[in-house]
Each structure stands twice: as C-alpha cells, then as structure tokens.
Design a protein that fits this description.
Chains A, B: Keywords: Ligase, Plasmid. The structure is a homodimer of 308-residue chains. The first copy, chain A, is of the alpha+beta class. Chain A is built from eleven helices and twelve strands.
Chain lengths: 308, 308
C-alpha cells in the first residue's frame, strides 16, 4: 500500500468503529469518547497486565494526566519532542480583561492569546511523574524499585488513524536500579509481552524502534537509539500490515532520567531506568480488528484469558 | 474556626494523607498522585454508584479529559468561569523557533509565550462532552436519554485543601428530556445520594448551593441560582465542620444546554437537562477522614457495602 491507501484504510477503520458505536466522535481528529463495550475491553486487558506483572510486587502509583511544569522542564522532553507537548494555560485577568475575552470570542477573534501558562502541563507518557517522585525518597534500596502506573497521556499529533489518538491511556511498569536489574527487567517483559499478546491470538512482531525526535538533530538521535537497541516495540497490524501499530513498547533509558533527577542506587551509582508501556486503546483496537466488534463472539480461548 | 484555622486544618489533613502515603505530592498545590489503597477506594465507590444507578439502563460514555475547543466555546463556560478553565497549547514552530525556545528555557525566561492554542481544552466537568454528542443524534426518544460518564476534570484553583484538587475525577449520571423527566431524576438522586452516603456511615447534610461564578455579574448569577434552587450539594465534613466539603452535587440546568446545542424532545420542545455528580477524590477523602487511613479497619457494615 502507498500512503494514500494507508490513510484510506485508517479512515475506513475509524468510520467502522464510529458506526459500531465503539468510538464516539468529538469533532477533533484523535479525540474520541468510548462506549461501555470499548471500556470493558480496556479494563479486562488492564487486569491481564496485572496478572502477568502482579507477582513482582510493584508499587502502584496513580497520577492525574497533568504534570508539574518544573519537572517537565527538567525532563529534556522539550529538547526531543517539543511538537508533541501540551501546556495548560488559564485566564488570570480582571473583569475588564474578561469583557475583552468575551468580545473576542463573540467576534470570532483569537481569545486564547492572553491565556497564561499554569504550573502544569499535559502528561506526555505515564512514567514521567515517577522519576522525580522516586528521586525525592533518597537512594534506592538494594533491589531497586519497581513502579506500576496508569495514566491518560496527551500528544499533539492530530491524525485520522484511530490508533494515533491525541489523548490515550498508557499502563506501565517502570524499573529503577542498576544497569543489570534494569536490562533483566526489559528482557523479562519482552518475553512476557510476546506471551501475553500471543494468548490473545494476535499476529505480532517485535522490532527495534525509535522515538519521533524533532528536527534534523532528532534524526541522529533516532538513529543512535536504534543502533543501541534502546527501544523495542510489539507491533500488531491494525489498519494495515505494511504499517503495523506499536501496541507495547520496551524502553531502556540508560541513565538519562537517573542523571536528570540524581537518582542513586544503594551503592551510590547513577540509577538506570527502563519501562514497559501498554497502549490501552491500541490493544483494544487490535482486538476489535482481529476478533470483531462484539466481544461475545471472540474466540473462546481469548475470552477465557480476558474474562476468566 | 476562622479562615486561618480552617487553612491550618486543611494543610494538616493534607500532610497526614501524604505521610500515610495515600497522596503523593508533585510539588504543585492541588496536583497529587494516589496510592493503590486510595485508588481501590475510588474503584469500590465507583462500583457502588453503578449498583445504585445501574438498573436505570444508562448509556455509558467515557471521554478523555479534554474537550473539543469549539464545543467549549459554545458552552458559555467562559462567560461564567473563565478563571477555572484550562486551554491546551502546543509548539508549532520550526527548528529555529525550537532553538529560541530552548535558549529561553536554559536562561530561565518564559518559553511558553509562543505556545499556540490547540483545538482542545481541559474538560471542566464530566458532562460537557455529552450535550453536543447527544445533540448530533437528532431529537430525543420519548423517554429522553440517560447517560453515564466518568472523567478527570481540570479546574485552575491551586489550593492547600486536599479536597480542592486541580485535577480530580467526577462520575456523573446525566438526564436529558422534558422538564418533568429531568426534575424527577434529580429528586430521585437527592434521595439516593442521601441513602448511599448514609450506608457508608458518613455524617452528611444536603443544602442549596451555587456555582463559583466569576466577577460582580457572577454574584447575581449565584444568587439567582440559589433562589431558584437549581443546585444542591451533599456536604460532608472533611477538613472542618464549619466548611464541609461538597462530595455530591445535584444540578438542574433548565434548558441552558438544550438551548445552546438545540437538543429537542420527541415533541419538539427544547430539552431540559440535569446531572448528579460524584466527586471521587472527595468521597475517598471523606471516608479516610471518618473511618481511618486503613480500609481494613473500617466498620464492618461499611466494608460490606463497598467490598461486598
């Protein structure tokens, strides 16, 4: 398929999902409501992730979908992905400024230019609030730490592809410790991820990947990330086989976050980190694509895995 | 208690919650992570709401915590609550603009002023995406509609009061129909809300209330809203008895939203709407306040209601 065909396939799947009532359009590409059926699939998959990871004793943390702006500024996200970030702005004016705002709105002018940045930004990935939180606790215990998060995330990339939403949910396990602990964790989850998705009878492939770094300097970062095999993705065809969708990702950050927030291992070294991320909407979309829009008709083995 | 004492009590409860690990500070007032225990209480209360409301056959819709900006502009929210709204902005520049952004960040200058408003804003209340969605479906069926939503909401009101978060979750049932259908719904939920919270052994009071309208014109709107008894709140003491916390709210919007989005009843009249909202974090905070920080030690009757 060429790009025109791929876009057409994306639009067609989106339209099917809307017609079936699974996605509710909101008038903005990449921003959808979901039906109760869609949500139940997300909840059942979330419970499946807990079953595969639960015995490891991860500490659950649940952050809202916004982040302290200071942490965000420290995180280097703006160096790598300025185009995807969302900052939250608000009105700080008096009644006169309010009248001006309403007049502009009434006259169809831009009323947003006087909005001022607040102290919070949209969470770009579920693990971002974790690193400064763990850093505040002091040096890691001997075994390092294992954290379990789940959050809505925002990325400003309007798309007709239903698998590329502007607001989507990500479950993650995050390992923080020595390089050995962290690399072992990622290897473990590469195997588990394959097993988990195979149990859902999904056609899948795992491949080296890169993040969408911004600009020309970003191209070099992408290529270095691939060469060092820092990122893997579990890919499932959703709208096309030529461009399968990354449903899980397995990321080794080396000492990037440990260095920024000065996270130290028990023996005083800079902590390394890794995470496995589950794209909740993408997994649901893959299940609907391969098993149909009505979970009651899914293969018995898949139903048993999800509903027990 | 005077305001100084009330603030001290709010700060003290927040500090206790943080020390107990139930809330995770993020460095921003009103923005907290939550522990697994906190989340389990929220989940159990969510299930309780479903048990009380489930037999009514509401249609579940789950929207992400952001809203089409066009819908938001149409909603009149900016007339009434400009100070609480959050707009999402992003970077739209090229590599040169990116270098400028990074230089400003590096030098501690304001890097946010060139951020441009996107097509989405923060959801201010869980029901906002529902009205335009229902309007798109055409005239209501004879019985009207009943919708079930759950969403993170944003309000820009940084506070040390743990019961006044900037990002919090709201479950809602929304009734859309004739004035009679809608008023009956609100009466039903005023009774149910009282029964549900009494079953959790919460000290409670239900009272007429008003929304925090902006400015001097807002004071008149507040007073009119109270005179017409359009809003009730179920109040529970959390940080003080003098200023109990609104944990549930019962709102009759008359034809406000029906008029804006031209929602019509089966016989062609402008639809009226009402909603009951459950403040999930506030209910959890009330339970922790009155029954202690460890749910294992809560009264057996309360545990039975929540855990079955």
């Amino acid at each position: 398929m060429n790009m025109v065909d791929i876009r057409a396939a994306q639009a067609a799947y989106r339209d099917e999902l809307v017609a079936a009532g699974l996605l509710i359009p909101t008038g903005v590409d990449g921003l959808y409501g979901r039906s109760g059926v869609f949500e139940e699939v997300v909840e059942r998959f979330d419970a499946l992730v807990t079953r595969w990871g639960g015995a490891d004793g991860a500490e659950a943390m649940r952050f809202p979908p916004a982040l302290n702006r200071q942490y965000f500024e420290e995180s280097d996200y703006l160096k790598s992905f300025p185009h995807l970030a969302g900052t939250i702005h608000s009105f700080g004016g008096d009644e006169k400024a309010h009248r001006t705002l309403l007049r502009r709105l009434e006259e169809g002018q831009d009323w947003t230019e006087d909005q001022v940045a607040t102290d919070v930004v949209m969470t770009p990935a579920a693990c971002y609030p974790v690193y400064p939180t763990v850093a505040r606790r002091g040096a890691l215990p001997d075994g390092g730490r294992l954290i379990d998060v789940f959050s809505y995330c925002f990325r400003h990339e309007p798309s007709i592809d239903p698998a590329r939403m502007q607001m989507f949910r990500m479950r993650e396990y995050i390992r923080i410790g020595t390089p050995e602990q962290v690399v072992e964790f990622r290897e473990l989850w590469l195997e588990r991820g394959r097993g988990m998705m195979a149990s859902l009878e999904m056609p899948l492939d795992i491949d080296v990947a890169n993040d969408p770094f911004f600009g020309r300097a970003g191209a070099m970062l992408s290529s270095s990330q691939r060469e060092q095999k820092l990122k893997f993705e579990l890919l499932i065809p959703v709208t096309s086989t030529e461009q399968p969708t990354a449903c899980l990702s397995f990321n080794y950050h080396q000492d990037h976050f440990g260095h920024i927030w000065d996270i130290r291992t028990a023996d005083g070294g800079v902590a390394h980190t890794a995470c496995v991320g589950f794209g909740m909407e993408r997994v649901a979309l893959a299940l609907f694509r391969h098993h149909g829009f009505d979970p009651a008709g899914w293969p018995a083995a898949v139903r048993k895995v999800l509903w027990g």
